[in-house]
Specification:
Strand order of the largest sheet: 1-2-10-7-12-6-5-3-4
Number of strands: 18
Structural class: alpha+beta
Largest sheet: 9 strands, mixed
Shape: globular
Distance between the termini: 52 Å
Oligomer: single chain
Strand content: 15-25%
Radius of gyration: 25 Å
Length: 399
């Protein structure tokens, strides 16, 4: 059945994935690449290349310029911020500017994420935008996470190696040792497409791909959060280590006289395994609490500074009644989990509040609060907003 699935579909007005979200997740998500023609019909890029270049000059923006010769034998990588005079001197061919987290800087770019509501929001990492001059590319490579590549301006030709999805053949993922980028030593394309504005290519992790600009173009890359097992285990172990303290130690109350006092015997190793097993069998809620904090803090672009103001509910009520609104900080990352029928945790950038599930769900998805939305919140959710404001998650501003 899998072999009969297409690698290219046309999106429809009511099916932007070319199928239902359930069908996409069942047949393609982390299994099979897919080109979706007209996923965003009539798409007009919220940013122009000049806007992206200007952002790359900002000190806090994460940006890179990658240049290469026509043969692809020589590569050069520079990291921003860049001076404004950098870009006019790069020429008209064979270079690419990449800027991470553009959704944290531009509200119109952030609004594109609404189209990906078929995925858990906490799984989505950022929107990276790349501008490529004619011939510009970053070489054949793989990503360790799912990515949606939306063509925003101009045309880019993508080649992919879908041999794993086609016949189970593992591609060669060895890297070249003659460049500082992690470029594939071998790349054997099975499919090639030219993408126009509004077309979108979905790639599961570890699918080799190579995109070359046919003319000056912008590409929007919606990448997923995919922490490694080392990230997960290391962070969780750090959390448990802090909570356990020094009083929890290796014990052996059933110790027997050893045959050889210098041997680490099987009984000792069994006790070690039992001690480690007890460590992983954390108290109820410990893993859940840790993960909510971890995933909302994972790969954040920067720290949010707590507010100098410390208003109470009455002060916020007066401010919103006077025409101000509360706007979520663009770096704010929220998620929630239900603990019981009347209790939930609202996670925000590594921290957590406990409120009613209805309030937690509402606040996690609420980017702006005006007088009306504020008045609709129950008392505990309003108090949570006060705490979130104090933590810098919201700012007061004029509409």
């Amino acid at each position: 059945m899998t072999a009969a699935l297409p690698f290219e579909v046309d999106a429809g007005a009511h099916q932007p994935l070319g199928m239902t979200p359930a069908e996409f997740l069942r047949d393609y998500w982390q299994k099979r690449p897919l080109l979706i023609r007209n996923a965003f019909p009539g798409f007009e890029s919220p940013l122009e290349p000049e806007d992206l270049a200007g952002l790359a000059c900002e000190e806090l923006a994460l940006s890179r310029v990658i240049q290469h010769n026509a043969e692809g034998t020589q590569w050069q990588v520079e990291h921003g911020p860049f001076p404004e005079e950098k870009f006019p001197g790069l020429g008209e061919q064979n270079w690419t500017l990449l800027v991470q987290d553009v959704d944290k800087w531009d509200a119109e770019v952030a609004a594109l994420l609404d189209a990906f509501a078929f995925l858990p929001r906490w799984r989505i990492d950022d929107i990276m935008i790349s501008f490529a001059a004619t011939g510009g590319n970053v070489g054949a490579h793989v990503d360790h996470y799912d990515v949606f590549l939306l063509q925003g301006l101009g045309q880019r030709r993508w080649e992919i190696d879908a041999s794993m999805a086609m016949n189970g053949t593992l591609p060669d993922l060895a890297f070249r040792d003659d460049v500082e980028l992690k470029l594939l030593r071998q790349f054997n394309a099975t499919h090639a497409w030219t993408l126009n504005p509004g077309d979108m290519l979905y790639l599961p992790p570890e699918v080799p791909h190579h995109g070359v600009a046919l003319n000056p173009c912008l590409t929007y890359s919606v990448g997923m959060r995919a922490p490694s097992q080392a990230d997960l285990i290391g962070d969780f172990a750090d959390r448990l280590t802090i909570e356990l303290g020094e009083e929890h130690r290796f014990t052996d109350p059933d110790l027997q006289p050893p045959t050889d006092p210098r041997e680490i015997d099987s009984a000792a190793l069994h006790r070690v395994r039992q001690a480690m097993k007890a460590l992983l069998e954390s108290p109820d809620g410990a893993l859940e609490d840790w993960f909510g904090r971890f995933i909302t803090a994972y790969r954040n672009p920067g720290d949010i500074v707590p507010s100098e103001e410390q208003p109470d509910r009455t002060a916020i009520d007066i401010a919103l009644g006077g025409g101000l609104r509360l706007q979520r900080h663009p770096w704010s990352n929220m998620a929630w989990r239900q603990v019981s029928a009347d209790q939930a945790q609202l996670f925000f950038n590594g921290e957590a509040l406990t409120i009613h599930p209805a309030g937690a769900a509402r606040l996690a998805g609420l980017k702006t609060l005006d007088r009306r939305t504020w008045s609709e919140l129950p008392a505990d959710a309003q108090q949570a907003v006060v705490q979130l404001f104090a933590a810098g998650q919201y700012v007061l501003e004029r509409p």
